């Protein structure tokens, strides 16, 4: 699932797979919050519900670590789901931390407005 706003998305390739990154200083694009998940993942569902009030401030990208093309992520996070990256950088794992997310989003928003 992806929440898209703006039209400037980049695909980035890392040693651990392909994912979206968007953390430019542009005022029209949103940062990408990547959720590393699997099916079933009750904690992931709960985390997505808790993060819904923030959905207009980021693009949510879900990566199912059980898919063959995501095997590197599976090896890295198989015991830690849910895991969140913001702009390609680790943010939090095991459960959502809204204060940490809020702090990082504010930092990015200030950078994009020159504040």
Automatic annotation (TrEMBL):
List, alphabetically, the Gene3D superfamilies matched: Glutaredoxin (3.40.30.10)
- Name the InterPro entries for this protein: Glutaredoxin-like (IPR008554), Glutaredoxin-like_YDR286C (IPR052565), Thioredoxin-like_sf (IPR036249)
Recorded hits in SUPFAM superfamilies, A to Z, give: Thioredoxin-like
Specify the superkingdom: Eukaryota
Instruction: Please name the Pfam families in this protein's record.
Output: Glrx-like (PF05768)
Q: Which residues form a coiled coil?
A: none
Keywords tagged on the record: Electron transport, Transport
PANTHER family xrefs: GLUTAREDOXIN-LIKE PROTEIN C5ORF63 HOMOLOG
Family, as annotated: Belongs to the glutaredoxin family.
Task: Output this protein's name.
Answer: Glutaredoxin-like protein
Q: Species name for this entry?
A: Pongo abelii (Sumatran orangutan)
